[in-house]
Amino acid sequence: xxxxxxxxxxxxxGEKHFQAFVCDALSVPIRSGSCDACISIAVIxxxxxxxxxxxxxxxxxxxxxPGGTALIYVWAMEQEYKNRKSKxxxxxxxxxxxxxxxxxxxAQRSLRDQGPDNSSQDSAWSDQLLNDLKDESCGAKLxxxxxxxxxxxxxxxxxQDLLVPWHLKGGTKKKEESVGTMVVPGGSKESQELSPVFHxxxxxxxxxxxxxxxxxxxCVRVQKxxxxxxxxxxxxxxx
Length: 239
Fold this sequence. Notes:
Blueprint: E1 2-4, H1 7-15, E2 20-22, E3 35-41, H2 50-63, E4 64-75, E5 80-81, E6 84-85, H3 87-94, E7 107-108, H4 120-133, E8 147-148, E9 161-167, E10 181-183, E11 194-203, H5 209-215, E12 220-228, E13 231-238
Parallel strand pairs: 1-2, 3-4
Antiparallel strand pairs: 4-13, 5-6, 7-8, 9-11, 10-11, 12-13
Domain Methyltransferase type: 1-72
InterPro entries: AlkB_tRNA_MeTrf/Diox (IPR051422), Methyltransf_11 (IPR013216), SAM-dependent_MTases_sf (IPR029063)
Pfam families: Methyltransf_11 (PF08241)
C-alpha cells in the first residue's frame, strides 16, 4: 500500500492498479502496529524544521509492528563521498537532453513563524542536535539573513537548507504558476515556449544526522546506516 501527498502521483498508481491513497506523512491514517515494513524514500528532507522531521520518523515507527523494519532515504549534503561523485553530479555532463540550469536568484523566506510544533522535549533535542552539527563537518554555510539560496542543479550543495528549481516541461505557462521562467532550448522560435519554474524546499542531511534523529527515539533501534548514491540511509527496527 502506497501513499503520497500528491493526488496526481496517487492517480498514476491507480492507473497501474497499485493500491495508494493521498495523505500527510505527519498523520498517516493506518492503524498503529499494523505494518511489517515501511519505506520512506525522498520524503523527510522536504520538511522544513528539525521537529517536523523527527515527528515524521516517529509516525513511521508508529505504523510498525514490534520487530517490523523501516527503510529511510534522504538527500545527502555530501554528493562527493570517499572521492567518488554521486550519480546526481555525474549526470550534469552525461545527460542526452542537456539543458542549461538557471539560478533564479534568492527566494525570500521568513523563518519567524517556525516555532516548535511538538513537545518542549523535542525542541530541546532539536537545539542540541543543531549545536552538535554546527561544527562545519559537511561544509554547510549558515544562512544568517533568513533567505534560502536557490540551488544550481547537478552541482554540489553549499547550504543544508535550500530551494531546488523544478522546470515544468510542456504546456504554456500561467502567470500565477511561476516565480521564474526559462526558454526551452532547441527548435525554432515558434516552437520555443516559456516553461514555469517551481522551487522545492530541501534540507540535505550531513553524515550522521539522520542516524542521530532516529537514535533520539526510544521506540526503534538503528539496524544499519549507510551512504548510497548521494543519499543517507537507515534501516530501523521497531522495539
